[in-house]
Amino acid sequence: MSMTLPSYTSGTSEVPLLGMTIGAMLDRTAEKYPDTEALVALHQDIRWTYKEFVAKVNEAARAFMAIGVKRGDRVGIWSPNRYEWTVTQFATAKVGAILVNINPAYGVHELDYAMNLAGISVLVTADSFKASDYRKMVYDLAPELKAATPGKLKAQKVPELRAVINLDKDKHDGMWTWAEFVASPATSARKNWTRYRANCSSMTPSTSSSPPAPPVTPRAPPSPTTTSSTTDTLWRRANCSPRKTAW
Predict the structure, then answer these.
(1) Which of 141, 167, 220, 231 lies at 20 to 30 Å from 183 by C-alpha?
(2) Dihedral angle sign, alpha carbons of residues 239, 240, 242, 247
(3) Taking a C-beta distance cutoff of 8 angstroms, is the pair 63, 94 a contact?
(4) Structural domain tally of the chain?
């Protein structure tokens, strides 16, 4: 019986696909263009060079490892554009986790469905967005969070969720702030950093697009039944150039 091998396809191009992970490509770009502007978040007064950006990514990657995130785990991101969004995207890729993008317009019903469908174990969330109170919806979905120690959640409705990181600067029950999350990664995470990176290959999935909404939601018209489809985006190659991301 022949061995099954991973496959991929690319469009017409004279440039071959690169057999590199996203993390490796980021590191190479930072080494090559350390002082080039990489990330600009005007509303957060952030202007980072590649050298600064990769340092923040590595800091967050070690923090994810310190709270138990490992290769193949699903980390949810529920937020509008912020610097933490981009840092989380690259940090989870370095660890080998899969970042699940949750639609910012989702309500609690869709959040419940998406969290359980994807099997999200760690949620990185904004506190709110426009008229949506994300924190209230998370508490409604997991009321056990208010009495839980950060990182040790056991919730009936979302049994796989164990940790919530709130991007608000203020502290909220059962959640880490981003500052708390990245402040003190465990020593073991630093020791295992090289091993984790070695376990990731260019074929390791790293990103999933927003999970579909439930087949029928309270806001859906009675007929026909509305559904949303999603295409999993498995980032198996990175083709970064020294251009910045600006919001």
Answers:
(1) 141
(2) positive
(3) no
(4) 1
